[in-house]
């Protein structure tokens, strides 16, 4: 079981993410555990005050380090204590996969002007979900909960389903279709209806390559390209310079017509 503990001033914001859909079902099945810890319970004063004015002046209030420390001490030992901050490591699929292999993750969700800087000495990692500013860390925490929990074995119905996801394979995901077979003049590609699994796999790989090449070519150097991928990218219009920059291997050598005829005659 992977345990998530969230230290927050607004546990009600995280409760729906922890109790519904796939995450909620995973909790019911004992695959993950989610603890929502209200830091006000550790305020140590009758008004449950957790923040104070910053030394040196300035707008806003700062969450006290002693409150955060008491909340952390109330929890079982953790593999990671994570603080959400703009200075943190960018959350990626690789980071999510790393965190999914832990046993207990603790997340500090800030509010107001954030935590007293001395809180940084209490954490093992700082994370950011992007270069933008929000009103608190709860939305970021919900993103991490969803990204990590789905990687825990047994949480998803198909244990291999996340391996083909965008970023997991190094490429954007291929397009998916379902009924109706035709809608407003747009038909499902015939290859997906033919039952040829090898042809479907090849089509999906080519589609993923095309989507990535057109929309996120920065991902291609990390995609583990194959010789067949190189051939596909050449057909899309990738230049030799592009292929070199992406670390693409040489395309498969073309067989001569004579060799093909010889191979056909012996088969």
From TrEMBL:
Ranges for domain tRNA methyltransferase TRMD/TRM10-type: 2-220
Keywords in alphabetical order: Cytoplasm, Methyltransferase, S-adenosyl-L-methionine, Transferase, tRNA processing
Reaction equations catalysed: guanosine(37) in tRNA + S-adenosyl-L-methionine = N(1)-methylguanosine(37) in tRNA + S-adenosyl-L-homocysteine + H(+)
InterPro entries cross-referenced by the UniProt entry: Alpha/beta_knot_MTases, tRNA_m1G_MeTrfase_C_sf, tRNA_m1G_MeTrfase_TrmD, tRNA_m1G_MTases_N, tRNA_MeTrfase_TRMD/TRM10
E.C. designation(s): 2.1.1.228
Entry annotated with the keyword tRNA processing: yes
A molecular function GO annotation: tRNA (guanine(37)-N1)-methyltransferase activity
Domain of life of the organism encoding this protein: Bacteria
One Pfam family linked to the record: tRNA_m1G_MT
Function: Specifically methylates guanosine-37 in various tRNAs.
Matches recorded under PANTHER family: TRNA (GUANINE-N(1)-)-METHYLTRANSFERASE
Subunit annotation: Homodimer.
Protein name: tRNA (guanine-N(1)-)-methyltransferase
Organism: Deinococcus hohokamensis
Gene symbol of the encoding locus: trmD
């Amino acid at each position: 079981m992977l345990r998530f503990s969230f230290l927050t001033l607004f546990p009600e914001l995280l409760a729906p993410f922890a109790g519904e859909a796939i995450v909620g079902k995973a909790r019911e099945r004992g695959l993950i555990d989610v603890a929502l810890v209200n830091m006000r319970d550790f305020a140590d004063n009758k008004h449950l005050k957790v923040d104070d004015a910053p030394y040196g002046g300035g707008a806003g209030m700062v969450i006290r380090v002693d409150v955060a420390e008491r909340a952390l001490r109330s929890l079982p030992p953790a593999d990671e204590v994570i603080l959400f901050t703009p200075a943190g490591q960018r959350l990626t699929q690789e980071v999510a996969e790393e965190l999914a292999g832990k046993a207990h993750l603790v997340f500090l969700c800030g509010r107001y002007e954030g935590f007293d800087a001395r809180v940084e000495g209490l954490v093992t990692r700082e994370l950011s979900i992007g270069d933008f500013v929000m009103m608190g860390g709860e939305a970021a925490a919900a993103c991490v909960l969803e990204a990590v929990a789905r990687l825990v074995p047994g949480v998803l119905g198909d244990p291999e389903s996340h391996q083909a996801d965008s970023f997991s394979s190094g490429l954007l995901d291929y397009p998916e279709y379902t009924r109706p077979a035709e809608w407003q003049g747009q038909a499902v590609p015939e290859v997906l209806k033919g039952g040829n699994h090898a042809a479907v796999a090849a089509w999906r790989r080519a589609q993923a390559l095309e989507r990535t090449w057109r929309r996120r070519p920065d991902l291609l150097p990390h995609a583990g390209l194959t010789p067949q991928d190189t051939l596909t990218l050449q057909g899309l219009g990738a230049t030799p310079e592009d292929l070199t920059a992406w670390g693409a291997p040489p395309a498969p050598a073309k067989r001569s017509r004579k060799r093909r005829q010889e191979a056909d005659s012996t088969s």
